[in-house]
Amino acid sequence: MIKVLFFASLREQLGCDALDVDAGQIASVADLRSSLQAKGEVWNAALSHQQLQVAVNQQLANTEADVKDGDEVAFFPPVTGG
Questions:
Q1: Largest CA distance in the chain
Q2: Strand order from edge to edge, sheet including 18-21
Q3: 61 in the Ramachandran plot: left (φ > 0), alpha (ψ -120 to 50) or beta?
Q4: Which CATH number fits domain 2-76: 3.10.20.30, 3.30.2310.20, 3.10.20.90, 3.40.50.2300?
Q5: Which of 13, 39, 65, 67 meets the CB 3.0–4.6 Å disulfide criterion with 61?
Q6: Residue 45's pLDDT band (boundaries 50, 70, 90)?
Q7: What local confidence, expressed as pLDDT, does residue 82 receive?
């Protein structure tokens, strides 16, 4: 299983802060993201933002990063500050 975490506005949009995903057909962050977007319109809208940030095992990653069974993947919106 892959532990998936959602932070900030994503958590609010999706109505959940974490879920477990079967690692079977997932090889990359892009695969995981596509799988989650297929869950429905709300999921697609929330995860389609081009500047969405992702971390694999608490390290910032891009969509081509490898994902395997036992990994933790976190999605969060871009951080803004001032």
A1: 42
A2: 18-21, 2-6, 72-76, 53-56, 59-61
A3: beta
A4: 3.10.20.30
A5: 65
A6: very high
A7: 54
Q: Closest by alpha carbon to 25, among 58, 53, 65, 67? A: 67
Token output for 49: 């933002």
Domains of the chain, residue spans = 2-76
Return d(Cα 82, Cα 11) in angstroms, integer. Answer: 23
Q: Is 3 exposed, middle or buried (0-12, 13-18, 19+ CB in 10 A)?
A: middle
Digit-coded pLDDT (tens) for 5-30: 999 989 999 999 999 999 999 999 99
| The pLDDT value given to residue 81 | 56
